[in-house]
């Protein structure tokens, strides 16, 4: 639903520079100036046309891409999207790349990296025997020095045996797991919740403050492990609880 509250509209009708670029391109796309698959003006051309910075143009194009109106190919250019390709997706993205795409800096602090015995509930979620070893990490990710995400993650050692040996101040768990154990299925749970005392401390916010909480579980085929798995054809790779301060993070989808 799109809000029409006046407080959300630009003051006196003024548009931010990136919004002017976005509005122009969107109107031309709707008007058919660039048919699906057509190459659109380059960033340099738009910078010259609107007399704005490259960062401003990049933001306009990113938002159009997020709305499924354009497709961007690094080193090639921006193309009008194919309108018949409509599939709502919530993409698993590496937070480090997401932050860098905004022109910001990312760093992380590892608060826990250990091996534990899987509880009954965790064993069920990951498709492993209760009491078997499971990797557990607790990491806080920062954007421009401000805490953005508290990542509490469990990993099935069968899927990523060297997970616990990684230096997660240099590579995010998401990036590492996507490299060593590609998933075939991902399940999400998204809710608004209050920060616990521990989460609030790690995120530098008040206890009980509103948060966006994403719980994500990924699985892969047991055949990827050379194991038929009997009646269970998939194996849990990881389950992660991702907690974000409500005033610092927005969850975005993508249409492809």
Give an overview of the whole structure.
This protein has helices at residues 17-30, 43-50, 54-66, 95-101, 120-126, 173-180, 197-203; strands spanning 70-73, 77-80, 88-89, 106-117, 133-143, 146-155, 185-194, 210-221, 234-245, 254-255. With 256 residues, it is an alpha+beta fold. α1 crosses α3 and α2 crosses α3. The radius of gyration is 21 Å and the shape is elongated.
Features:
single chain; 256 residues; alpha+beta; Arc Repressor Mutant, subunit A; 6-stranded antiparallel sheet; two-stranded antiparallel ribbon; 10 strands; 25% helix; elongated; disordered N terminus
> Which structural class is indicated by helix and strand composition?
alpha+beta
How many domains make up the 3D coordinates?
2
The geometry reads as elongated
Instruction: Find the count of extended strands (DSSP E, 2+ residues).
Output: 10
The CATH architecture of the largest domain: 3-Layer(aba) Sandwich
H-E order: HHHEEEHEHEEHEHEEE
Helix content: 25-40%
Helix and strand arrangement:
Elements: H1 17-30, H2 43-50, H3 54-66, E1 70-73, E2 77-80, E3 88-89, H4 95-101, E4 106-117, H5 120-126, E5 133-143, E6 146-155, H6 173-180, E7 185-194, H7 197-203, E8 210-221, E9 234-245, E10 254-255
Antiparallel strand pairs: 1-2, 3-10, 4-5, 5-6, 6-9, 7-8, 8-9
Helix pairs in contact: 1-3, 2-3
Short description:
With 256 residues, the chain is of the alpha+beta class. The protein has seven helices and ten strands. The chain folds into two domains: 6-80, Arc Repressor Mutant, subunit A, CATH 1.10.10.10; 95-249, Chorismate lyase-like (Chorismate lyase).
């Amino acid at each position: 639903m799109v809000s029409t509250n006046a407080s959300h509209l630009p003051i006196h009708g003024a548009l931010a520079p990136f919004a002017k670029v976005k509005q122009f391109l969107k109107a031309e796309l709707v008007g058919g100036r660039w048919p699906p698959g057509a190459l659109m003006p380059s960033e340099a051309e738009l910078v010259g046309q609107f007399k704005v910075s490259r960062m401003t143009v990049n933001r306009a194009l990113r938002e159009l891409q997020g709305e499924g109106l354009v497709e961007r190919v690094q080193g090639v250019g921006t193309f009008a999207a194919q309108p018949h390709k409509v599939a709502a997706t919530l993409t698993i993205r590496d937070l480090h790349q997401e932050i860098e795409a905004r022109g910001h800096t990312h760093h992380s602090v590892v608060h826990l990296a250990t091996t534990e015995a899987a509880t009954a509930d965790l064993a069920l979620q990951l498709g492993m025997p209760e009491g078997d070893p499971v990797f557990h990490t607790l990491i806080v990710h920062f954007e421009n020095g401000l805490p953005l995400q508290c990542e509490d993650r469990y990993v099935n050692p069968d899927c990523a045996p060297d997970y616990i040996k990684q230096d997660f101040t240099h590579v995010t768990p998401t990036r590492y797991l996507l490299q060593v154990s590609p998933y075939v299925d991902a399940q999400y749970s998204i809710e608004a919740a209050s920060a616990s005392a521990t989460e609030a401390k790690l995120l530098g916010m008040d206890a009980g403050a509103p948060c966006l909480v994403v719980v994500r579980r990924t699985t892969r085929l047991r055949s990827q492990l050379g194991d038929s798995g009997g009646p269970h054809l998939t194996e849990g790779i990881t389950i992660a609880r991702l907690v974000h301060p409500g005033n610092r993070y927005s969850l975005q989808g993508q249409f492809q």
